[in-house]
Every structure is written in C-alpha cells, then in structure tokens.
Design goal:
By secondary structure, the protein is an alpha+beta fold. It is about 25% helix and about 15% strand. Bound molecules: zinc ion (ZN).
C-alpha cells in the first residue's frame, strides 16, 4: 500500500480513485471518515482524505497519471511557469489567471 494523493475533500479523492480504476490501478480512499470531524482535529495530511494504491509498484504510474490529468496541480507547491502579459509585458506568476498590473486575462 502506498499513498499517492492527498485530496482537499472526499469528492476529489473519489475522482482520483475513479481515474486510477479506469487504468486498472487498484486504489482505495482512506481518511474520509475523519473529514467530518475537521474543526475539532488539526488539519494535517492525516485528517484529509487520501488515495492509496494496493500495489507499490504502481505508485509512480499513479502519481504521473494524476498529474497528467491536472488534479491537484493548482496546489501552491506546483506553481508552473510564469507568463508574460500581452497587455503590458509584465511577468506574472503562474498561479494568477490575470495580470496583477493591468488586469488583462492570461
Ligand atoms: Zn498586464
């Protein structure tokens, strides 16, 4: 058993599980039951729903698959490439959808 993904909510965890199932990578969702008690317990990766693969050998493939589907890539840990604004030429960090300087869309 290997953890391949920590979701921010149970729906996201099941989305990832379904994705892995569709590629015949057996996976389970753990920690869902703890989700309801958040607020009482500190929020850590242990209290968020997580997705585990049964076969450790498939963990790497699973992570790559999740990444390729863009799940969780909005996370601040993976900001991606900065982009240049077409309106004013300002270089804008990847997490922003529009220019902070002139407001032009990406
Ligand atoms: Zn701009």
């Amino acid at each position: 058993m290997k953890k391949v993904f920590v979701a921010s909510h149970p729906t996201e965890a099941h989305l990832v599980k379904g994705l892995l199932d569709s590629r015949e990578i057996p996976a389970i969702v753990r920690g869902e039951s703890l989700f309801g008690v958040r607020g009482e317990a500190p929020v850590t990766p242990d209290t968020l729903p997580s997705v585990w693969v049964n076969n450790d050998d498939q963990a790497e493939e699973a992570v790559a698959l999740i990444r390729s589907h863009g799940v969780g890539v909005t996370d601040a840990n993976t900001p991606g490439e900065p982009w240049s604004c077409s309106g004013c030429g300002e270089v804008v960090e990847a997490q922003f959808g529009e220019c902070w300087k002139c407001g032009a869309a990406k």
